[in-house]
Design brief:
This protein is an alpha/beta fold. The chain is 30% helix and 26% strand. The protein contains ten helices and twelve strands. Keywords: Acyltransferase, Amino-acid biosynthesis, Cytoplasm, Methionine biosynthesis, Transferase.
């Protein structure tokens, strides 16, 4: 797709090697089209990896999009060069007067902390409030999903007895929703988390709709405000080797590390992973962009409310 991303972003070369079409800003300026404006608040430690994962999925529609990366003023990442952050990211203060067609808020490695004890919680709360009136539709992923459900709807998170780690089958509760157009009866989604939100709390809240769930991993995707908010407890955006890299990183460093479930061929970590989620991940993001962003956002972006 004609995805407009900043010139020289590392993801460009990586995705071109995968034969995925991306358009840098210089080329895109020659097209007379009102592009969709997408902002990504990237809270993950390995920001370049997450950028690549998300752009890979956003690159699967024929619509032109401008992608902006947001960072927090109250938090300095430790695992990404400061030069990269200065070149490609903008503080919320620089973006708060703008409106966006779509927003993605990623997970963060702070899930075992109470929300209010996260050192950037106040800024996150401000961004959550801002998104309700400045963004047509927002995807909240993993920790951001739990944080958003807690902040907006009072849904508590709960610590799991052991890490939910692997690839789990998800069942769609309403196959007629546009977000699941073209889906099969079930799909797979990677999970990597130590906490959960409980099904009973979600279905008891009339403002929320549980749209995908798993008998193993629990609540999978929650929708609110008619699709203006989606809360995804897993990681559809993960590349094939992400769970494996996490497993190898944590082995020997933690005493609660199990091999990811339903991930390696024959459950043998010496074998490559079996990728079962990529097709539905692309379809989910494509449906989100088409039906909940493009079809709903006003042509005059300033009329978003």
């Amino acid at each position: 797709m004609p995805l407009r991303i900043p010139d020289k972003l590392p993801a460009i070369d990586a995705l071109k090697r995968e034969n995925i079409f991306v358009m840098d800003t210089s080329r895109a300026h020659s097209q007379d089209i009102r592009p969709l404006s997408i902002v990504i608040l990237n809270l993950m430690p390995l920001k370049i990896t997450t950028e690549t994962d998300l752009i890979r999925l956003l690159s699967n529609t024929p619509l032109q999009m401008d992608v902006t990366f947001m960072k927090l003023k109250s938090h300095t990442p430790k695992n990404t060069p400061i030069e990269h952050m200065m070149m490609f990211y903008k503080d919320f203060d620089e973006l708060k007067t703008r409106k966006f067609d779509g927003m993605i808020i990623t997970g963060a490695p702070v899930e075992l902390m109470p929300f209010e004890e996260v050192n950037y919680w106040d800024e996150m709360a401000t961004i959550f409030d801002w998104a309700k009136s400045h963004v047509t539709s927002t995807l909240y992923i993993c920790w951001a999903a739990q944080a958003g459900l807690y902040y907006h709807y009072g849904i508590q998170k709960h610590t799991l007895p052991k890490k939910m780690f692997g690839v789990f089958r998800q069942y769609v509760t309403d196959p007629l929703l546009p977000i699941f157009r073209g889906f099969d009866d079930y799909f797979f989604m990677p999970h990597s988390r130590h906490t959960e939100v409980r099904r009973s709390d979600i279905v008891a809240n009339k403002a929320l709709t549980l749209v995908a769930e798993s008998p193993e991993s629990g609540a999978g995707i929650v929708m609110a405000r008619g699709g203006r908010e989606f809360f995804i407890t897993g990681h559809l955006e993960y590349s094939p080797d992400t769970l494996g890299n996490e497993y190898k990183r944590d082995m020997g460093k933690r005493d609660d590390v199990d091999m990811p479930v339903n991930y390696y061929k024959d459950d043998n970590p010496d074998n490559p992973p079996v990728v079962t989620w990529r097709a539905h991940a692309n379809l989910f993001f494509n449906n989100w962009i088409n039906y909940y962003v493009y079809q709903e956002t006003p042509y005059d972006i300033d009329k978003i409310e």
